[in-house]
From TrEMBL:
Keywords: Membrane, Signal, Transmembrane, Transmembrane helix
Xref: Pfam families: GGDEF
NCBIfam families: GGDEF
InterPro entries, per the entry: Diguanylate_Cyclase, GGDEF_dom, Nucleotide_cyclase, Rev_trsase/Diguanyl_cyclase
Gene3D superfamilies: 3.30.70.270, PAS domain (3.30.450.20)
Entries under SMART domains matching the protein: GGDEF (SM00267)
Regions that span the bilayer: 284-304
Signal peptide region: 1-30
Keyword Transmembrane: yes
Name of the featured protein: Diguanylate cyclase
Boundaries of every GGDEF domain copy: 472-603
Length: 603
């Protein structure tokens, strides 16, 4: 008898709750009907203002991504001459338009010149802003229809301004609105610059010119136009009404500045839309009451049937939100080092910034087996270090710290790893969040960027401890520049330094990340190609030799330089640097004796 009694009691309580909910809904709607007209307009204004602020934040985020791209370009050319065809070609190769969304990206020197054009952009305001160390923005010509120009500063290694990187975007690139949103909200949406000139514009009957403030100047406004412009310039949200004119209906405006970007987001809504909404609610009040009653019944029924699933869903949702919040909190604290997350369930590692490329990894997301394969290619001994870090998940350590050595880009790197494990409600590790910091001291030659003599010898000796694979060899190459002294004597040491930089750049482009390049001194370089198929050594030497035929001219005279190379193939692990150097030097002498500008290989 106990169980049926409980069911009946529960049914009576539920019935009373439903009737009470219906009564409360009916009373609330009656009060709502009395105050609807007065409150609807204010609510719509607030909604439009809030929506405009959200769009301004979206625009800010979009602009920050475009500027970040240009700053990456600036860092990539800080050691290159700005007014150079080669620099411009490198930008085109490394930052293609289909990846960056820019129509074009150009490097300008301190005079505002680019090698592909005869003119100068030094009088443009965005160029002046960037020379002053700020982010610039302006028109690509006389109007924004031909594009929006963004610009950032380029600094050299001594933090001195050496030029400007400019990128041209189409106006549509700043459009943050979709057709479906426009149709649904019945709002007109714009993006303007700080002076009110339209960048993104929907042409409706109330827009007659190219400037927002010009269009507003002929209308009766609830806030003076001078006050509107002042408040916008002070980064303040502005909401106001524009009265009806002979040619246009009354409208509601909201203007919000995209903070720090010198852009304004504008939302315009017809006033009659507010009245139509109010009339609709009044006309269908009783229908709305009925719908709410039915909704209460449906909600109660769903609640009784799915309460368990709802609780599980909410719990899982909160868990994902907490994980995401923790992930981005760690990212914000460590944005100058390589940040990664490891999802234990999927086994995927996700790198959250571009620093992973410096470790020799070509993907932002990869699985543990793929990561191990890539690390194996760089340095096999590092795989064991990675397994030590991953073991902290099995050991359920809240925090973990580890330091290890990684060979990448032809040099030894000392890495410092910090990780934090995030646990689910069952006490299991759901995700690992961590940072990887390169704590290696500077071992590079300041002029050419390749390794110095001592660092290069140390790394080559380390590699020689292991033998190459079957059918593979280590190739030890000495490259000595021909006619280098003549270049210095005739054109000056500035041209000699430029030649050394050009030669180092060509070598770095030809070599793999794990190969070693070092400058022994003067115009003598050593290249060590590790674990290379023997059949590829000759084609590598031939290609490099051809690319090292360089000519320099100061207008009155020119000097050509080449490179003579002696090459030794090493296959035994007991071989030393000094032994390889002595043998390669003999081959180099033979090349110098029989004819410069070529190469000779000996096993």
């Amino acid at each position: 008898m106990k169980k049926p009694y409980n069911k009946k009691k529960r049914a009576r309580v539920l019935l009373v709750a439903i009737l009470l909910a219906i009564a409360v809904c009916a009373g609330a709607l009656a009060c709502f009907n009395a105050t609807l007209k007065r409150g609807e307009k204010n609510k719509t204004r607030e909604s439009v203002a809030e929506w405009t602020q959200q769009n301004a934040r979206l625009l800010q985020y979009k602009m920050d991504r475009y500027y970040d791209t240009l700053e990456n370009v600036a860092r990539s050319v800080q050691n290159l001459p700005m007014n150079s065809q080669e620099t411009q070609k490198k930008i085109g190769r490394n930052f293609p338009t289909e990846d960056t969304h820019f129509i074009c990206i150009r490097a300008l020197d301190l005079e505002g010149k680019n090698p592909e054009f005869t003119g100068s952009w030094k009088d443009q305001q965005y160029f002046k802003d960037s020379l002053a160390g700020n982010r610039g923005i302006g028109k690509n010509g006389s109007t924004y229809k031909s594009g929006v120009v963004l610009s950032v500063t380029v600094y050299d290694n001594s933090d001195q301004v050496k030029g400007v990187i400019c990128g041209v975007l189409s106006p549509d690139s700043l459009n943050i609105f979709t057709d479906s949103e426009e149709a649904m909200e019945r709002r007109d949406l714009y993006v303007t610059d700080k002076d009110g000139t339209y960048i993104v514009k929907q042409d409706y009957e109330g827009v007659s010119g190219d400037n927002l403030y010009t269009d507003l100047s002929g209308r009766e406004l609830s806030v003076k136009l001078e006050n509107i412009r002042f408040r916008v310039s002070q980064n303040m949200k502005v909401c106001f009404s524009a009265a009806k004119t002979e040619d246009d209906v009354a409208r509601e405006y909201a203007i919000v500045q995209a903070n720090g970007q010198k852009l304004n987001v504008v939302t315009v809504m017809k006033e009659k839309t507010v009245l139509e909404t109010s009339t609709y609610y009044q006309k269908y009040l009783y229908l709305l009451i009925f719908q709410l009653i039915m909704a209460v019944l449906v909600v109660v029924w769903i609640y009784l049937r799915m309460i368990r699933d709802d609780r599980i869903y909410i719990k899982n949702l909160n868990k994902r939100l907490e994980l995401s919040e923790e992930t981005y909190r760690v990212t914000a604290r460590n944005n100058d080092v390589c940040i990664f997350t490891y999802d234990v369930e999927t086994g995927l590692i996700q790198f959250l910034n571009e620093k992973y490329k410096e470790l020799g990894l070509g993907q932002a997301q990869l699985s543990i087996p793929v990561l191990m394969k890539k690390i194996q290619e760089i340095n096999p001994s590092t795989c064991a270090e990675i397994e030590v870090i991953l073991k902290s998940v099995d050991d359920k350590l809240p925090n973990f710290e580890h330091k290890f050595v990684l060979w990448s880009g032809g040099r030894k790197r000392y890495l410092h790893v910090l990780t934090t494990n995030i646990f689910d409600n069952m006490g299991k590790v759901a995700r690992m969040v961590g940072s990887i910091e390169d704590i290696t001291t500077n071992e590079s030659d300041p002029l050419t960027g390749v390794l110095r003599r001592a660092a290069g010898i140390e790394q080559i000796e380390q590699i020689l401890l292991t033998s190459p694979g079957v059918g593979r060899v280590h190739a030890f190459m000495i490259a000595d520049l021909d006619n280098f002294k003549s270049l210095n004597d005739k054109l000056g040491h500035m041209w000699g330094d430029q030649a050394l930089q050009d030669v180092a750049k060509i070598m770095k482009n030809d070599c793999r990340p794990r190969d070693v390049i070092c400058r022994l001194g003067g115009d003598e370089f050593v290249l060590f190609l590790q674990n290379l198929p023997e059949r590829e050594v000759e084609s590598f030497a031939e290609g490099l030799s051809g690319r090292l035929h360089l000519t320099y001219s100061d207008g009155s005279q020119s000097v050509s330089i080449t490179a003579s190379m002696g090459i030794i193939l090493a296959g035994r692990s007991e071989t030393s640097f000094q032994e390889l150097y002595a043998r390669a030097d003999k081959e180099l002498y033979e090349v110098k004796r029989t004819g410069k500008g070529t190469w000779h290989i000996k096993e």
